[in-house]
Model the fold of this input.
Amino acid sequence: HEEIGRRLALTGRKEAYIFIHGYHSTFKKPMFVMAGLWHFLGRQGIPIVYTWPSGGKSPLQGYTYDRESGEFTICHLKNFIQVLASCPGLEKIHIICHSRGTDIATSALGELVSEIRAAQQSPHQELKLGNFILAAPDLDMEVAIQRFATKRLAWETDRTTMYVSEKDRAIGLSDWLFSSQRRLGQLRSQDVPEYLKKSMQHMDRFQIIDAKVRTDSTGHSYFHASPAVSSDIILILRDNRQPGQENGRPLISIMHNYWEINDEYLKNW
Done:
């Protein structure tokens, strides 16, 4: 609380940005990612990296190691978010999670939401939840839908934004490992079930963005490697802009609350 109070005194924006990294991450890599995001946010607010013990040695065993480490850290993330939310003077908490970090974040928030509702309180108010951004989510589509539906997570944030890409090879490997019907991180518009399409008609605080952009060899780090996607994230976090050319976010509408972003994004400003 003392450290957060000291940092709040140095910024006009009384908000915190938590980045939760994904699979096979070193300690320093998410620091660079968060530093880059915070720089383009105008160095306002408080940047925080939530690290957890990932980084198994071999690709396949490392993945299973990281999956269990993710389960291990859920209770710690819950405690951290609660302590952070109780800091005097802090007005908003934004959460940006990547890959396996999306599983950790949705699990932790789901449990917190249930506990706070059981105490007859508002999770949105108690946790001060602003934007919730899931980049390249490594989640089974049906598991994710169940979590969001039963916990009503999208109703407890100012806005939930999910970035997906069919070109994400790392998510494709995870899809193969778990024999998923469809991994959320590779969700295509034609994969969206009809019942979800109908629900999305009434979920204006929830958007899916399909990233059709150039990126690295694995296609998994586009949320910060692609200037288009990283710029879109900044516009959400910094300015809280709604999608659409008229709002300064020139995304292509595919269906209600499902958008496409491509490399022409920056040219269309």
Q: What stands out?
A: The first helix runs from residue 2 to 8.
